[in-house]
Design brief:
175 residues; two-stranded parallel ribbon; 3-stranded parallel β-sheet; globular; 6 helices; alpha/beta
Length: 175
Amino acid sequence: RMPYLLTFDDGFLSQARIAKDILDPLGIKGIFFVCPGLIDTPREQDRETIAISIWDGAVTSNDLPDDIGLMSWSDVEVLSASDHTIGSHGYTHRRLAGLSENDLEQEVAGAGIRLAERLGVPPDWFAYPFGNLPSVDQRAIDTISGRYRFCCSGIRGLNSMKVHPLALFREQLGL
């Protein structure tokens, strides 16, 4: 059997529902990469936040489905209590490449600190926002490596023992 990791990015509310309704009854655990700064955003601002931060302004809030939303801290805490892994996806889902030192520190380390404050345990996992090579640079990788044990990209491929734990590949499944 081929081992696999089931990962979810961005912290959409629908992912918490998938965990509760599908994964939990089957005993399947996932890694949920969330952005603490987006969780802290008031829920009435979800659609605008998603359009700007997650879709990088490529869509407007009017282009999004009516029922789209972000997880609350309660949703994240339930996932954690159900033995799903919570990882960081940056503080506010900013592209890491080219950020100032302070902004990079906030996006990477600040996100881990905020998750640890809320969940009582520092996250071991990070997935950099947008997942492509132009979204990360060596300074970002160095900052990530100082805080996390594992880092996922959005680059397709199969992982093996030869793949560095801070450069894990992923495949995307569309529903």
